[in-house]
Design brief:
globular; 2 strands; two-stranded parallel ribbon
């Protein structure tokens, strides 16, 4: 359900990623699946994403908190993407907090492999694991990519925590939001 582009759920689940991707980036499998392989279509999608977010907030009235979630926050590791998302959020919100929960690397690899297969990769687990564990560029990858967010974004609050236990309780505590758990 969350991967059907025509439905709103898909737009919300990968929308932030597509709205922030540099338009000149070579399209990946997920972009192709969503019909956004063409840079002009990605530019249009980005504009529509931000306009729709603004309309949704306007229709709801006096909103002071919006939660946007993307499990693959690390994908936003280049200056252009981070600044684009940061600037668009800053136009719409007076206070933005980034909260990143870092999984255990072994848990992350299982999830990343599952997503790669869903997006069309045809690698065996053994090969995927070997490539991702032994590759020197993957050493401290979370730290490097999260630090890019800290460096290029304009947010006042930037919280990074290891993922432990109940994510909703952890998120509520990190953001000081009462989620009525």
């Amino acid at each position: 359900m969350g991967r059907q582009f025509e439905k709103r759920q898909f737009a919300r689940s990968v929308g932030l990623r597509f709205a922030g991707e540099p338009f000149d980036k070579v399209a990946n499998g997920l972009m192709e699946q969503a019909g956004l392989a063409d840079p002009a279509k990605r530019r249009d999608y980005s504009a529509k994403f931000w306009d729709t977010l603004e309309e949704d907030i306007g229709q709801e009235g006096n909103i002071h908190t919006v939660v946007m979630s993307d499990e693959a926050l690390f994908v936003f590791a280049n200056k252009q993407m981070i600044e684009g998302v940061s600037n668009n959020l800053a136009k719409r919100f007076s206070n933005v907090t980034i909260v990143a929960f870092v999984r255990r690397p072994s848990d992350y690899l299982v999830s990343a492999y599952s997503q790669a297969i869903k997006m069309g990769a045809r690698k065996r687990w053994k090969d995927y694991l070997s490539e991702n564990v032994t590759n020197p560029k993957n050493t401290e990858i979370f730290k490097k990519k999260l630090m890019a967010w800290k460096k290029y974004s304009t947010y006042d609050d930037f919280v990074v925590q290891p993922l432990r236990g109940d994510i909703l309780e952890q998120f509520s505590s990190a953001t000081r939001l009462d989620l009525a758990l």
